[in-house]
Design a protein that fits this description.
723 residues; mainly alpha; 32 helices; globular; transmembrane; C4-dicarboxylate ABC transporter permease; transmembrane transporter activity; cell inner membrane
């Protein structure tokens, strides 16, 4: 596929940095750039080593991670946005092109982060009775953390954290239900800094223990060619159908999303091929950009490499990562199915063709050239589903990426894969009898490759660069997770989460009573109406919060507040967590802050706001699915009381509802739809939200007049063409 001119003007990597503030590093002078790259590489090596050879003590591990993360942020993000895109010259007050204050803040961040691990031996005696030095160091960490988060992810999250601390301090002056005893500043610092309920809490621990490793794996897997293999296979599978490039975007984004949890990275990588092809095929520019960006948001919900929130579920729910993967499979499929339906109807309405045989890649050649790149993903899944920890699975996946990327030899690839399979089966994966020789072999392979010609040296250098880029992708997530720890810490200290849950339940109950008063008796129960409006309110807050806060932060905040609310209404914990997670991800294509959609619009040369609106419409399947699995938990497979009968009924009903909504929004099914037909299809889709055979049959019965008319129109059109 040749590139469209609109794409040639923008390099995908530059676009990703432009629309993803978390990786928009400022340019540095050469010497400083080498120092920063060295620190990023060291951070990746630290996590890679500890994942395979043993984690440090919990607080120490988190402290080292945070020292690197916050310190690096002050070196790579300028204090002012206008300074972020220019190289500052060296001066006495700006050594290496970075202001002295930034160097000082970086050192202060490192010192304050490592202080708690340093005093850990007598920390138990200080919690509740902090010394002056404890309060000073805690204050320093909170201040530098908020500033680092502001620089790397924006102002919204730090403002929420500051607001929560003000609330915690001035509790006695708060009105009504929000009144609480309050806390002194030393009490706040004690809770947020010296306990595991604040900055050093679960959120930071998950990023330092799981997320970093999977981000690094995704970068390495892409570098060795797994992403290209997925895109070529998607082109071969879907390119020949009507509106082929748009369907390639969906399949490609689904496959690429398996190794990339970033919506924007997915958009610019897959979109660099699919968006220009869609435009050449005849799709409007805004629609082409919307298709790619909407499909790309599925990366955060597509197993096995999901967004950071998926790893947080492990800690919050106390379940294995394989359980989270199984639960996510069908909802992720439903997202892509919803986008596929709207793309298909749009292609049929416009009479678009598929790609010709000459335009499609050769599947045999694609597999012959790229089969080795699948091995790291196979290794990761093998180790993960064998019962080992997620970080150990990532360690062996990263190791396999290095072997494939540097070796480029079928014999080496198959031999290494066979060795890992055998070690897994024998339970030797963590034993020195295996890990020692394997580590020596990988080191020897790297050295041998470096000494044998420029091509092999380039491969080793590319692996090293991937370690740098992987850390680059992860540092902003680390800062955001630590700041979320401040918010969660205040919530646990004051108990405001339960108060908000009570208020939401009361408001939803009042809304339910108002609706029940005008509906026929028996159609809804009071508890059912309360649950429905609680879900609606939670979804709205998730979307609004997600417009200014990263997905991970949105998930943690909303789970802290909303999970108790949904739990009181009988929703299973894993279902409540997935509900919040899905609506937090939806913010990536929800105007006015639809960053993935804006990245796609820039590549297509389309209107950003129009692209965002279209992307939101295409993502309505993702908006419907969370309601379905709340009412039909069987869709998540791993819920208590699961049966295949319930699963089949729930899944079929959801698919039917998605098809009806897609046809209604596309104004086409088998033929153009009139206004009343579209309204009837939307109404018919509503019963499928409450899955069950009766409600599904009701929805199908409501839609049957439209279906019969559509079939008649298609037959008439076919007869006219034949005549």
């Amino acid at each position: 596929m040749s590139s469209h001119p609109a794409v040639l003007e923008d390099d995908p990597l530059k676009l990703e940095e432009k629309f993803d503030p978390e990786i928009h590093f400022r340019p540095l002078l050469p010497a400083t750039a080498v120092l920063v790259a060295g620190l990023l590489f060291t951070l990746s090596c630290f996590h890679y080593y500890t994942a395979g050879f043993g984690l440090l003590a919990e607080t120490t591990h988190r402290g080292v991670h945070m020292a690197f993360v916050i310190g690096l942020i002050f070196l790579v993000f300028a204090a002012r946005g206008r300074d972020q895109d220019r190289i500052a010259p060296h001066a006495w007050f700006r050594p290496g092109g970075i202001l002295l204050i930034d160097w000082a803040l970086a050192l202060a961040a490192a010192a304050a982060s490592l202080y708690v691990p340093w005093i850990f031996h007598d920390l138990a005696f200080r919690v509740g009775n902090p010394t002056t030095m404890d309060v000073v160091m805690g204050t320093v960490l909170i201040v530098v953390l908020l500033e680092a988060t502001r620089r790397s992810v924006g102002i919204a999250l730090p403002l929420i954290a500051v607001g929560m601390m003000i609330y915690g301090y001035f509790g006695p002056t708060m009105p009504g239900i929000f009144k609480h005893p309050g806390a002194t500043w030393s009490g706040l610092v004690n809770h947020l800094y010296l306990t595991s309920q604040g900055v050093y809490g679960v959120a930071l621990g998950v990023v330092a223990t799981y997320v970093f490793h999977y981000v690094l794996f995704g970068v390495l897997a892409t570098r060795i060619g797994l992403g290209k293999l997925f895109i070529d296979l998607a082109s071969w599978l879907a390119g020949g159908f009507a509106g082929g490039p748009a369907k390639v975007a969906i399949f490609g984004s689904a496959l690429f999303g398996m190794i990339s949890g970033s919506s924007i990275a997915n958009t610019v990588t897959v979109g660099s091929l699919t968006i220009p092809a869609m435009i050449r095929m005849g799709y409007p520019k805004h629609f082409a950009a919307a298709v790619e960006s909407t499909a790309s948001t599925g990366g955060q919900i597509t197993p096995p490499i999901m967004g950071a929130a998926a790893f947080l579920m492990i800690e919050f729910l106390g379940v294995s990562y394989s359980t989270i993967i199984l639960a996510a499979i069908v909802p992720a499929f439903m997202h892509f199915f919803g986008v596929f339906c709207q793309v298909h109807f749009e292609a049929k309405k416009k009479g678009m063709r598929g790609l010709t045989r000459e335009e499609l890649p050769d599947p045999v050649q694609t597999i012959r050239e790229g089969w080795q790149t699948v091995m790291p993903l196979a290794v990761l899944l093998l180790v993960l589903f064998s019962g080992y920890t997620p970080y150990l699975a990532a360690f062996w996946g990263i190791t396999a990426c290095m072997i494939v990327g540097v070796g480029r030899s079928p014999l080496i690839t198959l031999g290494s894969f066979a060795a890992i399979v055998a070690a897994t089966a024998a339970g030797l994966l963590t034993k020195w009898i295996f890990i020692g020789p394997m580590a020596a072999a990988v080191a020897a392979l790297l050295v041998w490759s470096w000494l044998n010609g420029p091509e092999r040296r380039a491969r080793v250098a590319d692996i090293g660069d991937a370690f740098v880029v992987g850390a680059k992708y992860a540092i902003s997530v680390g800062a955001a997770s630590a700041t979320v720890g401040v918010i969660v810490g205040v919530i646990t200290l004051t108990g405001v989460g339960f108060k908000i849950s009570w208020m939401v339940t009361q408001m939803a109950g009042q809304m339910g009573d108002a609706v029940l008063s005008v509906l026929p008796a028996g159609l809804f129960t009071p508890q059912g109406a309360t649950l429905f409006f609680t879900l609606v309110l939670t979804a709205i807050v998730c979307i609004l919060l997600g417009c200014g806060v990263p997905t991970t932060a949105t998930y943690i905040i909303m789970v802290t507040v909303a999970a108790p609310t949904l739990g009181m209404l009988g929703v299973a914990p894993i279902v409540a967590h997935f509900f919040v997670f899905y609506y937090g991800v939806l913010a990536d294509v929800t105007p006015p802050v639809a960053l993935a959609a804006y990245a796609g619009a820039s590549m297509a040369g389309a209107d950003p706001f129009k692209t965002g609106n279209t992307a939101f419409r295409l993502a309505l399947g993702k908006a419907l699915v969370p309601f379905v699995f709340v009412y039909g938990p069987a869709m998540l497979i791993v819920t208590q009381g699961f049966t295949w009968t319930d699963f089949a009924i729930t899944t079929f009903g959801c698919m039917a509802g998605i098809v009806m909504l897609s046809a209604a929004f596309s104004a086409y099914m088998f033929a153009p739809l009139r206004g009343w037909e579209r309204i009837l299809l939307v109404a018919a889709a509503m019963p499928t939200v409450a899955p069950g055979l009766p409600s599904t049959l009701v929805g199908l019965a409501m839609a049957s007049p439209v279906l019969l008319l559509q079939l008649r129109k298609r037959s008439t059109a076919a007869a006219a063409v034949a005549a």
